[in-house]
Amino acid sequence: MMNKELLRYSDIFFKTDCLTFDQLVAYKAGKLTKKQNHYVECHLIDCEFCSEALEGVEKIKDIKKSKATIKRVNRKIRKKIYRSENERRLLYKHRYIAIAATFLGIITTLFFIGSNNKADELFAKHFELYPNLIPIVRGETEESLFIHAMQAYETGHFLQAEWIFKQVSETDDKYLLATFYLGIIALKNEEYSRSSYLFHKVLESQKRNLRIHAKWYLVLNYLKTNNFSKCRSLLIELINSHSIYKDAGDEIFIYISNK
Questions:
Q1: 151 plus 251 within the same structural domain
Q2: Using an 8 Å Cβ cutoff, are 211 and 205 in contact?
Q3: C-beta separation of 73 from 81 below 8 A
């Protein structure tokens, strides 16, 4: 049903305390009783709107034609109001849908954040920079790119270390180690795609121990990026091989098994 308040104003001579069109026409034509005439005149004294309306009525030559025009205008007003009311209802409906969708989005986001918080906690707990696998010994040449890179790595100058590691040639016997440490730096810098790529290059090698370490850092990578399927597969390999990462792997495995 159309809003009653809107209907009230759907007539250009709507029913209020003001005079109606018919009253104004009858007053002009002298067809009112003495009492009615007195009422109209008293009202006109205090109502500027009706006084101006009366001036308009006095200028009308064809009252019947004017009444027909007024009815036509009123129909258009009603039609416009009806459409506006429907549009408003539709707007309210869309607004409720938007509110519901927003609420659902908030719940989903909170769930996702809560889930991610645990993954972040596990990552923070188990991620640590891997130490130098080849400690520098007295008398060893200091011209080695790898040695310079490790010195920067161990002192926290990761940007410098990264740049030097990249200079290590593929023909150098330290190339795979350089790739491994580049993967760790990338993981630390939250460059997950690059980190994954570098660790997979290490997995292509025949160096078993280095491959185990690369698998572990890939587990952390997948944990951080919510790639639980790949994370689970690598964890099973690490746990079954009784590697040094078994206990930490068990904790992460329990977490992702509920996903």
A1: yes
A2: yes
A3: no
Residue 120 located in a structural domain: no
- How far apart, in whole angstroms, are the C-alpha atoms of residue 80 and residue 78? 5
* Nearest CA among 28, 56, 60, 58 for reference residue 41: 28
Domain hosting 140: range is 127-257
Alpha carbon separation from 104 to 49, 100, 108, 259 (Å, rounded): 52, 6, 6, 20
Q: What is the pLDDT of residues 20-79, one digit of tens each?
A: 878 878 887 888 898 888 788 788 777 877 777 777 766 666 666 666 666 665 666 566
Distance CA 207, CA 87 (A): 70
Give a yes or no: residue 121 inside a domain: no
What is the pTM (predicted TM-score) of this model? 0.55
Same domain, 57 and 23: yes
Which residue, chain included where needed, has tokens 């129909």? 75
